[in-house]
Amino acid sequence: MSGSDNPYAGSFGNQMTASASFGGQPAPKAAAAGDLIKETTTATFSRDVLEASREQPVLVDFWAPWCGPCKQLTPVIEKVVTEAAGRVKLVKMNIDDHPSIAGQLGIQSIPAVIAFVGGRPVDGFMGAVPESQIKQFIDRIAGPAVSDGKAEIEAALTDAKALLDAGEAENAAGLYGAVLQAEPDNATAVAGMVDCMIALGQIAEARQALSELPEELAKDAAIGAVSKKLDQIEEARKLGDPTALEHQLALNPDDHAARLKLAKIRNVEGDRNAAAEHLLLIMKRDRSFEDDGARRELLGFFEVWGPKDPATVAARRKLSSILFS
Question: Does the active-site annotation cover 196?
Fold first, then answer.
């Protein structure tokens, strides 16, 4: 099969667009080998793959009894999946008996392994690849295995945050999920997973996940910050058209109500510096507006951005000059 015929050629190590799903539950713990590998049919594909992949990544191995490379791949991929101890599941589909799904995915050569996350295909490979490549593939899809060691967990959390900040929410979710296997109640990882949902536009799912957290976990500062971020996003959606607000301000720069709304919108758009500048300008012109509402809103931004964020540092410096000048 040529690269031009292979819909997944070049996709190894480069995930397609996908959804991260947390659903208010910690990442699945290690399961018995019998729970990790199963056969599926056209009738059960939706349940075995699409629905199951909303809880953890599912690898689908498309094979046929006559396929020599399939027989080479089977023991290797089953071994690697078993050793992954629940980070992924393996679902096998005989394309002779059930050809329609493979046809819909454009699979023209087997063995073909397609990874599903959040109900969607996100990556795949063709052929009987070596064990080392399968391990790399699973690390790419599910995040590398994380031991119970504190240092390893902290390193994984740091890497996940860096990925999320770089816009790689899917890869970040894989790392956060790996941490949650070791520490299901790790508040930083839970908050990070919800933040990944927000980054992927899964606002309702993120809210649902937060609502299902145990009371004690929900009190954590990291959870509080991501919950406040959701509040800000949901509020900003109701504040109108930013272009119209900009026009209002052009006509009347002292329309503080319009400026406050625009600050909230710019914040959820990710333009933190612009959001802060609008609030600081209100403070300079009228500290009494909404009972010092601009300052209180800015402090709420700081809570979500974090104390080390460059926008927080810059805005806090300017805030101090206003308060103590």
Answer: no
- pLDDT score recorded for residue 19: 34
> How many CB atoms neighbour CB 212 within 10 A?
12
Instruction: Give the containing element (helix H, strand E) for 42.
Output: none
Catalytic residue of the set 20, 67, 196, 210: 67
Q: What number of other Cβ atoms are within 10 A of residue 306's Cβ? A: 12
Write down the number of H helices and E strands in the chain. Answer: 16, 5
**Candidates 52, 58, 59, 70; catalytic one:** 70
Global pTM reads 0.47
Strand stretches in 53-102, DSSP E = 58-63, 89-94
Q: Which pair of structure tokens corresponds to residue 24?
A: 């208010």
pLDDT digits (tens, 9 = 90+) for 266-304: 988 888 899 999 999 999 999 889 898 899 888 988 888
Spell out a b/e string for 229-242, using b for 16 or more CB atoms within 10 Å of the CB, else e: bbebbeebeebeee
All structural domains of the chain: 37-143 (3.40.30.10), 147-237 (1.25.40.10), 242-324 (1.25.40.10)
Q: What is the 3-state secondary structure (H, E, C) of 261-301?
A: HHHHHHHHHCCHHHHHHHHHHHHHHCCCCCCCHHHHHHHHH
Whether the CB-CB separation of 204 and 156 falls below 8 Å is answered with no
pLDDT, one tens digit per residue, over 161-193 is 899 888 888 888 888 988 888 888 899 999 999
Cα angle value 284/288/291 (rounded, 5°): 125
> Catalytic residue at 70?
yes
What digits encode the pLDDT tens for the residues 108-143? Answer: 899 999 999 888 888 889 999 999 999 989 988 887
Helix (H/G/I), strand (E/B), else coil: 241: coil
CB contact at 8 A, 38 and 81? no
Tell how far CA 223 is from the center of its chain: 15
